[in-house]
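Hi there, hope your week has been kind to you so far. No rush at all, and the record is pasted right below.
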Amino acid sequence: MTSLLQVQDLVKYYASSGLFRGGDPPVRAVDGVSFEVMRGETLALVGESGCGKSSVGRTVIRLQEPTSGRVVFEDNDVFALDRKSLRRLRRRMQIIFQDPYSSLNPRMTVGAAIAEGIEIHRLAVGAEIGRRVGALLEEVGLDPGYARRYPHEFSGGQRQRIGIARALAVEPSFIVCDEPVSALDVSVQAQVLNLLADLQRDRGLAYLFIAHDLAVVRQIARRVAVMYLGRIVESGPTEPLLSNPRHPYTVALRSAVPEPDPGRKHARIVLSGDLPSPSKPPPGCPFHTRCWHPARDERCRIEVPLLRPVEETFAACHYAELTPAAEALAEA
């Protein structure tokens, strides 16, 4: 596989909001994130709410401007492009939003919403636009006649399919999927995930799949990066990472996934306390204030661990080699 997207030391800070808060430190939503996505693969970005994963997705495609860092997509330095060049590149980089209803204009028909990108980028004219819209609706499993209807006439799963068709309309090679199934029923989630997998196979698409559900991630992703407080704390191939996580935060996330085999036991690790403020992250390891690791010590409170190779994954933990699996904790 060849590299399609490279993200290097991405930083995104937000100014503190509220009256008389000009002197407060900024919110460090993304704090030095690096990864790459290969052509035709899915990289999952996972973590609890507030970890910065959606900010990564939106900043990578420049829906919001970065604080610093570099993103290279198809040999283009995305952050160095002017408005005109970025608009041309947007054909190749698209996004599917979490809420399929609020992402669609309620005053536009489904056909008009899908056709908008085709018209902006002049991919077709006249009757050919309607034919393309019908073909896209059919490709995502909907009746082409739905083009004349409005978003409120559809279910959540159907609206997400419409959102997918809109993203496909400009023929992208890379799509940010920002929690595209989290608002859907479980049975509909499976259908949408299967659709995304089929589209990836048929069109050679690459996905940055943002999620918090590791069961969903296991179904669709080839590689996983785990985020905590704006940083990647573990990354690697999906099966080794989920089967034998080396960072205590990943072990805690993995322990929350229901076990389908009633004969197999693993401990449920409940993290104490809330996620620290991203405007005032703790010194040392960002996870040390909630860490359950038996080897945790003073070093964790003063020294930031680097992301380093540990067996088949990369983990940012001083004692990653000693991290017990949830199954081992259940037997202890």
